[in-house]
Design a protein that fits this description.
Layout: H1 7-10, E1 41-43, E2 48-50, E3 57-60, H2 95-114, H3 119-127, H4 129-141, H5 153-165, H6 171-176, H7 181-197, H8 203-214, H9 219-232, H10 242-256, H11 264-268, H12 275-293
Antiparallel strand pairs: 1-2, 2-3
Helix pairs in contact: 2-3, 2-4, 2-5, 4-5, 5-7, 8-9, 8-10, 10-12
């Protein structure tokens, strides 16, 4: 049962924007507190709802008719997810869509906040907003250190954007964004380490480890599946999306090895796996594997001295 008295404003899946996030019992956005009994403060001029404790903008009314997505809104469809138009009822959104909309809103807010102090960084955030959300959800789903779901959204997004864009933010910029330099640096260090560890790994193999970890497969089992994939390669597939192909291969090998719990539904719940394309990817792999082992008609299989 949802006990947050301000859920209608901040949303049911609100992430505390403090770093580290406050426990629910201490966050005025998640519970009634004596000194903050009115919850989020509303600015009638800007339409912004602000946390009275950390002063972070937690929501923004858009009565001027502006779209939440800019001219690049077609990118929202690239990963097979449903586009959620501004004003749609939140009851019509899946949990994953709610998480993504929250992160996109934070990116938009950070772009506004950095527009004057660092225009290139601000532009990068807007142009690459969907890609940043995709990468962040991969890190969160894998529960990478400092990128767990309940960690500070702003710190995670700032560090990830710096890492991806290679655009430097000065310590003063970090402070103006309400973040600690140390919180950004430790996340940048983790991202650099992950990037180094993935050097030399093909994209499809990288996606196998990501999907496998998301469905709780051990590293040993994933290493075997990757080895089996390498032995079968090159193995074509009609589905172009690599994450979906990785999920399809994991499903097939799990069935072959009678690994319980790796269902299509579970794989489809992994962020970036295209739900409507997984079945096609599985069938494509199965068909190509079967065709590979069929004997060729008219060709003798007997050795000739």
């Amino acid at each position: 049962m949802d006990s947050n008295p301000f859920a209608s404003i901040v949303g049911r899946y609100f992430d505390c924007l403090e770093d580290p996030p406050l426990p629910s019992a201490q966050c005025p956005m998640l519970t009634l507190l004596p000194n903050y009994s009115n919850g989020p403060a509303y600015d009638t001029d800007t339409g912004e709802w602000t946390c009275p404790k950390c002063l972070s903008i937690v929501d923004r009314d858009n009565d001027d008719g502006e779209e939440m997505f800019d001219d690049d809104e077609d990118a929202a469809f690239d990963n097979g997810e449903d586009y959620i138009a501004e004003g749609d009822s939140i009851q019509n959104q899946s949990d994953e869509q709610k998480l993504r909309v929250t992160r996109d809103n934070i990116i938009e807010q950070l772009a506004d906040d950095t527009f004057i102090i660092n225009p290139p960084f601000s532009k990068y955030l807007i142009v690459n907003r969907y890609f940043i959300v995709d990468q962040l959800r991969i890190l969160e789903s894998a529960s990478e250190a400092h990128f767990e779901l309940r960690k500070s959204l702003k710190a995670k997004i700032i560090a990830l954007a710096i890492h991806l864009s290679k655009i430097h933010l000065t310590p003063s910029h970090i402070r103006l964004l309400g973040q600690r330099q140390g919180a950004i640096d430790m996340r940048l260090k983790l991202l650099d380490t992950l990037s180094t560890n993935n050097n030399g790994m093909s994209p499809i193999v990288e996606k196998m480890y990501y999907v496998g970890k998301a469905v709780s497969l051990s590293r040993v089992i994933l290493d075997i599946m990757v080895e089996q994939y390498d032995e079968a390669s090159p193995l074509p597939n009609s589905e172009p999306d690599e994450t979906t192909r990785a999920a399809a291969w994991i499903y097939i090998k799990s069935k072959d090895s009678q690994i319980k719990g790796i269902t299509k539904a579970k794989l489809k719940s992994v962020p970036l796996v295209k739900k409507n394309a997984l079945d096609r990817a599985i069938e494509s792999y199965i068909t190509n594997l079967q065709n590979r082992i069929k004997p060729v008609e008219g060709v003798t299989t007997t050795d000739v001295d």
